[in-house]
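Human: We require from you a standard protein entry with sequence in single-letter code and fold as tokens, and nothing else.

Assistant:
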Amino acid sequence: MNFDNDINKDNSTENTQEISSGNNDTQPISRVEFRSNKKSVGRMVKRFRRKMFVYFVVVALVSALVGGGVVAGVMKYSGIGSQQVINRYLPLSSNDNNPSLIANIAKIVSPAVVGIDTSVAYSNGYKSALVPQGSGSGIIFNSQGYIVTNYHVINGASKITVNLTDGRKLPARLIGKDSKTDLAVLKIDATNLPVAKFGDSSKLQVGDLAVAIGNPLGESFAGTVTAGIISGLNRNLQSDYGPVKLIQTDAAINPGNSGGPLVNSKAEVIGITSVKLTSTGGSSGADPFGIFQSQGTPVEGMGFAIPINEAKPIIDQLISHGYVERPAMGIAVQSVTQQDAQQYNIPVGVYVVEVQQNGAADKAGFKAGDIITAIDGTQVKTFEELQNILYKHKVGDKVNVTLWRDGKTLNLQVQLQSSANTQ
């Protein structure tokens, strides 16, 4: 431990000071003389340091034992009067007998973490070739060769190659993908593969241990393990694919980690790493998380992962159907802001840009130019609000929609269709 020297050396100390012996008997109180010279002050400082060192060791042990778990790690203290502030700590073990928790987690989970390389077909008119597109990570969750990764890792790829920890490089085929949740499932022709165990992300607490495993910057750094804590839960971020709720962690996540696991202290996957926030402000639609730090404020230690409980049903649907079925109305829309409403003398709501022919909304009588203001009596002001209401229903459910058309209010009933019919 490093302690800042917060002892006041006062060279104006009086020649003598009275100090209690600490005993409760009637013996005379000890008297110690301190002369005003550097040697006496030096002895005092050394004694004080020894006492403080013992004191902090005791405090550290007591703090670690309270709650039933021992926390080992690196602690740096800075003195502020009589207070001691912990600047940083890293939990390394959950009990006295397991000082290598992170190493053990890595041994258990790493074999099920794969590298993913993608290539895209390129043609210059007379010659075609596959050009490397990018790389990411993935998690084997089924011994028959099923792998989950991020949609953005494989999006647009003509060829997908999976790199196993045993050195094999196998071609993969895309089973299904979902841009809205940024998830995709791949399959390789291999059996008896090591499998990662999925945990329960609903049990996470801020401050829990978080370990990220993946291939940052590609194959050269395959199997990189970083550790930190769960920094936040249910973080609402706006991505290229819409609003998402993510787990926040300060475990280092870099390009190439995408699709890899975020693991808890039980070596269970509780999240799928997806994005890293590197700056705030100044981002554009092509850079929704500020990755390129364009005129933004730099930030550190803000990585995000898709909660595994959110990913499980998506993975199941991707395996079963190749897509995720969601309730939809068969319309293309955009939000009408308060400023838009004032400028064009229309209500705040969701403007219908296009109606799918023979879709649910078309059959209900919707027209391009309508403005949706409420669904089942609940006011709707944005696309996100409309989406959240629809996702509480199932395909086939009927909803009552209030809309504005040419200065008049209409009420139409819509039977929700499958989102697969709008693709």
Q: What stands out?
A: The longest helix spans residues 38-65. The chain has seven helices and 26 strands. Residues 375 and 401 are 5 Å apart (CA to CA). The chain has three domains: 16-86, 97-324, 327-422.
